[in-house]
Design brief:
The chain has 386 residues and is α/β, with parallel strands linked by helices. It contains 13 helices and 9 strands. The protein is globular and about 70 Å long.
Length: 386
């Protein structure tokens, strides 16, 4: 039985991970060779290396595949990458659908590891590369800012409710006000750290400065979009970026039935959240390219929120264009390039010809992959607007 590919699937938890070693034969059959549990620690990583060496054929391609499980997978992925192993990280929802296709009715760590190993052996998946340290830190800071902003909004709402309640408590109001002041101090500190992080890298600082020439896009917006996309390293077209961000359109039509057409929201929710307020800001400040898009959609009877989503999408595409071409915002030039697609596609962008080779100085690795997730509900950020 000749082996043509080897795959190690790792289902990772906080304290341990299950590993499954599978091979793809020349008959296109996936065969499980061995499985074992390891502690999620440096000792466990060393034991995994010894265990894999026992079963692996040095002359055949070997890859390691795992789910993006919060942060628990990062240490193992980094260790394997440092050892020059081929690492693949896939989204949990993709693994879930693949496991169902294999006919597995039960779900446990061992079954998940087996499904991952099967997927790695059978599919041709893109290898993972870690983010640059600068963008990784920037992503942590922007996500921390988002979380604290959410908590501040919650406390602000509680203070409003307490102030207008039937038997308002002054002591409760004082405590809530102190909490708001604490959150404001933390947000300010994070914003200063984001600015310092960007300024530490001259190339990153220069590109961010050009992106923020777009009216409505400030430092926080630019930093979030760039960090969540890892400097747009994996994207060669606007369509890929739109899909990654969850702005791609999902149709629901069969025969004579025409259901609701909407955006998928199956993508990076942090990007959609951070673009919500800049879109409102750009329309209310009457920035021509965005106001024209908004008026065109509302003039055809579309809801205001749909029009604002289209503006968010347009903002994202323009940020991507300026970053790739390393250009500043030119209102007259980009107003002429506004797409005039149908309403259902929300002005969907086509491929950006010439962009992939336009920027020779990159901030992030060419094959770097940013983390994706799926949470809807945009939450506005009103800071760092221009």
């Amino acid at each position: 039985m000749k082996t043509i590919k080897q795959s190690v699937g790792a289902d990772i938890a906080k304290d341990k991970f299950d590993a499954c070693f599978s091979v793809l034969t020349h008959e296109q059959r996936v065969v499980v060779k061995a499985s074992r549990k390891f502690p999620n620690s440096p000792k466990g990583f060393a034991d995994l290396s010894k265990w894999v060496s026992k079963w692996a054929d040095p002359s055949v391609e070997l890859l390691f595949i795992m789910e993006a499980t919060g942060v628990y997978h990062e240490n193992l992925a980094w260790q394997l990458h440092q050892a020059e192993r081929k690492v693949i990280i896939v989204l949990p929802n993709r693994v879930k659908q693949y496991t169902r296709s294999l006919g597995h009715k039960s779900k446990n760590d061992k079954v998940d590891a087996k499904a991952l190993a099967h997927m790695g052996a059978e599919r041709n998946l893109a290898p993972w590369q870690p983010m640059s340290c600068q963008l990784y830190l920037l992503r942590k800071l922007t996500r921390e800012h988002e979380q604290i902003h959410q908590m501040r909004t919650e406390v602000s709402n509680r203070l409003h409710a307490e102030t207008h309640s039937m038997l308002a408590s002054k002591t409760t109001q004082r405590r809530l006000q102190k909490t708001l002041k604490l959150y404001d101090m933390q947000l300010q500190a994070i914003e200063e750290e984001i600015k310092a992080t960007v300024e530490e890298d001259p190339l990153l600082s220069d590109k961010v400065e050009k992106v923020t020439t777009i009216k409505g896009v400030g430092l926080l917006t630019a930093a979030t979009v760039i960090a969540e996309t890892n400097g747009f390293a994996l994207f060669t077209s606007q369509k890929q970026l739109v899909s990654y961000s969850g702005y791609d359109v999902v149709e629901n039509q069969s025969g004579k039935r025409n259901g609701r057409t909407r955006i998928s929201k199956q993508g990076n929710s942090h990007i959609r959240r951070i673009l919500y307020m800049p879109a409102l800001h750009a329309v209310r400040r009457n920035v021509p390219v965005f106001r024209a898009l908004y008026d065109r959609l509302t003039g055809k009877g579309k809801k205001k929120m749909l029009a604002y989503v289209a503006v968010q999408k347009k903002l994202l595409i323009l940020i991507y264009t300026l970053w790739k071409k390393n250009e500043v915002w030119n209102q007259d030039r980009y107003a002429q390039q506004t797409p005039k697609g149908d309403i259902q596609s929300l002005e969907a962008g086509a491929s950006l010809s010439g962009v992939s080779g336009a920027d020779k100085n990159t901030v992030a690795p060419t094959l770097a992959r940013a983390t994706q997730d799926e949470h809807p509900a945009p939450i506005g950020q009103e800071l760092f607007f221009r």
